[in-house]
Amino acid sequence: MCGIFGISGHPEASHLTYLGLYALQHRGQEAAGIVSVDDAGVARAHKGSGLVSDVFNEEILNSLEGTTAIGHTRYSTAGGSAAVNTQPFLVRYRVGTLSIAHNGNLTNAGALRRGLIESGSLLQSTADTEALIHLIARSEQPTPEAQIREAVLKAEGAYSLLITVGRVLYAVVDARGFRPLLLGKVGDATVVASESCALDIVGARIVCELEPGSFVRIDGGRVAYLDPLPPKPLKRCVFELVYFSRPDSQVFGESVNLFRRTLGRRLAQEQPAPGADCVFSVPDSSNAAALGYAEEAGLPLEHALIRNHYVGRTFIHPVPAGRDAKVKIKYNAVREIIAGRSVVVVDDSIVRGTTSRGLVAMIRQAGAREVHFRVASPPTVGPCYYGIDTPTREELIAANHTVEEIRRYLAVDSLGYLSREGMLHASAGDPDRFCHACFSNQYPTDIPADATTSGYVAELVRSI
Ligand code: SF4
Fold first, then answer.
1. pTM value?
2. Which residue in 104, 125, 110, 114 sits closest to 47, CA to CA?
3. Sorting pLDDT into bands at 50, 70 and 90, what band is 127?
4. Protein residues with CB under 6 Å of any ligand 1 atom
5. Angle (deg, nearest 10), helices 109-118 and 129-138
6. Which end of the chain is more exposed for a tag (fewer CB within 10 A), N or C?
7. Which of 179, 239, 392 to probe ligand 1 with, by most ligand atoms within 8 A of CB?
8. CA atoms within a 13 Å half-sphere pointing along the CA-CB vector of 122
């Protein structure tokens, strides 16, 4: 998963992009990059591994001159951590400089890349996004708009894209609209970002959320809405609202906070825990759902699990790790809240089950009398091929075990998931507009045998 931010028509474009990426850090902590373009069309790039604050400093930002910029934060992935995969990609082609930042995952990346290699393209990265660059650059259409349109119409799957050709910024959202992309204004400048929290941090107001199929051209801050892509059934990623987006963001036309609170309320209706003394969340992504559960159940909300926010991705275990060491490094239990009580623990989802099991052991050690585990989404039964980096089906506990088997594995007194209907109807909008494939195995596109969940095409690396 990734976060993208773009700006046009601002004298401090790279500085604002840095701020925007900072707000989108939760969407990707593995690497970050910015490409800026000055009014003469000269592009400059800086990219690196790590957090946004590690990759950039004042001197670097000052060197990224220009009034147009795009940026990208990248999520850690299983097979694609090489530096060549860090975005935005920047190349020079016959029209000028071309850069691209992508949020999503192309399901037909393997076929696109094979076709490009067979016709003579030299691919450097293992990222699906690189195929789009080649398709744009090889297009024989007369204008950048037509070249981009021709390229994206060959792509299947999920893409919210920011592209610069010279100093002109383009924003494109695939016709199903898997990933959010919002457009805002700060003064005369125009900003485009994955979530509204990135508009807030630069003082921009929301103009609109780009509709699925949107194709927008922005030059000097002026926005032109180009002909949209041919329509397809909407497939907004419900997991953005359940887990991925920040709770202070607006995505898909609704408040993430309110959506999660409603999930919690519905969860309390569907999966009550009679006799429980209190409710608490697995922080932070489950906080709003736990609040909704507590409100609906009429139980006190406690802060009984404390999360250490300073655990970096690269934490090295200084002593041989025990079974629950990873959980203990990230969380601790507040004993005086838990001891002797029957507790309801609310989490947003269970993926492998290992973290949940470690948390339950910690809660038991803190003296809980009963542990009732509640999940504010349905069982996760399938991987995502549209840009959320989930494990394989074999690793998903709910894909291979019944709820009762999972309850026994977690060692809880009761386990309850929210129903699919309960999740989808937490929306203030049309519940039919969501993709819920990871909860239902109802994939809205073909999934080729070589489709990957990470956006990186390992098979082609081996074959090059
Ligand atoms: S499969 Fe799940 S995570 Fe992926 S786009 Fe659909 S709802 Fe979102």
1. 0.94
2. 125
3. confident
4. 178, 237-239, 384, 386, 388, 435-438
5. 50
6. C
7. 239
8. 1
Domains in the chain with CATH codes: 2-235 (3.60.20.10), 255-308+317-432 (3.40.50.2020)
Q: How many CB atoms lie within 10 A of CB 312?
A: 10
Q: Distance between CA 96 and CA 70 in Å, rounded?
A: 16
Average the pLDDT over each of 58-62, 301-305, 306-310 and give the range with the smallest value.
306-310
pLDDT band at 231 (very low <50, low <70, confident <90, very high): very high
424 CA to middle of ligand 1, Å?
13
Selection from 233, 243, 218, 265 nearest residue 348 by Cα: 243
Q: Looking at ligand 1, which residue's alpha carbon is closest to its atom 8?
A: 237
> 210 pLDDT exceeds 90?
yes
pLDDT > 70: what percent of the chain?
94
Residue type, position 423, single letter: M
Active site residue 2: yes
Q: Are strands 2-8 and 189-193 parallel, antiparallel or unpaired?
A: antiparallel
Rounded to the nearest angstrom, the distance between the alpha carbon of 445 and the centre of ligand 1 is 12
Strands (E), 341-430: 342-347, 370-375, 414-417
Please identify, by atom number, the ligand 1 atom nearest to the C-alpha of residue 388.
3
Closest CA to 22 of 89, 72, 82, 77: 72
**Residues sharing a CB contact under 8 Å with residue 176, sequence separation 6 or more, in sequence order:** 158, 212, 232, 233, 234, 235, 435, 444, 445
Distance 28 CA to ligand 1 centre (A): 17
pLDDT at 79: 43
> Given the CA of residue 158, which atom of ligand 1 is nearest to it?
5
Gap from CA of 232 to ligand 1 centroid (Å): 17
Burial of residue 310 (CB within 10 Å: 0-12, 13-18, 19+) is exposed
Angle at 120 between CA 158 and CA 93, to 5 degrees: 70
DSSP code at position 230: P
